[in-house]
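User: quick one, fold this
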Amino acid sequence: MDETPDQKLPKRYEALADEIAASIRSGALRAGDRLPSVRQASAARRVSPSTVFEAYYLLEARGLIAARPRSGYYVTAAQPVAQQRMPEPAQPVGEVQAVAVAERVQQLLGLARERDLAPLGSAFPSPALFPLATLSRALGRAMRVLDPWRTVEDLSPGHEGLRRQIAIRYIGAGFSLDPAELVICNGAMEALNLCLEAVTRPGDLVAVESPCFYGALQALERLGLRAVEVATDPRGGVDLGSLAALLERHPIKACWLMPNFQNPLGSLMPVENKRALVALLRERGVPLIEDDVYGELYFGERRPPPAKAFDEAGLVLHCGSFSKSLAPGYRVGWAAAGRHAQEVARRKLMSSLSAAVPSQEGLAEYLRHGAYDRHLRQLRRTLADGQARALRAIDKHFPPGTRVTRPEGGYFCWVELPPAVDALALHRLALSHRISVAPGALFSADQRFRHHLRINYGHPEGGRTEAALKTLGQLARSLCG
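Assistant:
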């Protein structure tokens, strides 16, 4: 998918949002004023309704306006999110590291699963944000007409109709994907693990981001693989120069990366960097395992393309899931594994035969009826608003010198606290106040991020996140000395 010549210029919705924001700052629009409806603004400005919608969506994320049910959009009294400084990019030494994180992850996160905890450390958004009742009805419809033979026919690579619906969604991201390449798995973690197994052997080196999703580190540990951490920018993702140098220096057999809304940073690789990444790895013959579970949770005008969109050699093993965007608990993910698709399907068949047939049937039924995009629009608005609220709370309550990312999608931000704050000590204090956090030590093989936290802003109900962040900021201040 080629970029247009004016790619670096503001998009129409951004220009419209900036114009309205300027009117708010100047006082021409005041708190409580109602904005024109989407239809009115579209006609007056001669732009599409979707352009107006995205502009209003962006202004919501900035905390400048708010939607009122069945009434419209209004200027809010809230102040814009402060422009906090970004965390410093990680600069790993590029040495090979054995991985032993499973026990630490279990100890730190196993304590944070109780329902009454404020879930700042959770890996999932609030289950209240998902259409679980609608999904249940779709599952019921599918099961009433289920052909018993489907329980045999839908063994790996999985439900044909669901694979076709997944392939259709990728057309919206700007590229075609053959349904025959897809393997349905028990969630994205199984898909990622199977892909990793397909392209490595025990003792191999795998390049990962820094900081890195702890699930990737656990997978490397389980398979007896070693990690090499790549310098990663909190805004733009993996540093391609750093990666190229590591490929020269080490016999890296695979890369496990998250180009879209990386966990924990929330970083988004620019399109041109994704294209260059795929080209770099193609030259070396190195497979890319692409974790794209947050790709649908973008706050902008359209879904950012995955690296898979630029893969002409079949070296990108792309993995996605419905767990973060639609159906937590259904455990349905997939791998589009390119030239390794048959090997991934074979390993899936050997390990667990197939993903649960009822879950696949129910999701295929739901997707056929076109409700997914409506749900996603609401979910993205909610997450963007949750981010704006969280960033205001962090700016107000956390110690001076705190830095935080401002992702363009997903539901995580990465917080760099003053060096005096021990994130593990803060984690223990927070638990005593019924707040969970994810300390930075979880996100590196060598536990380097000792004054960092990953914060989940995807639990917006009842102002719970803001209250928890206020308490967490006070606790962090108490550790500054």
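User: anything notable?
Assistant: The chain has a mean pLDDT of 88.
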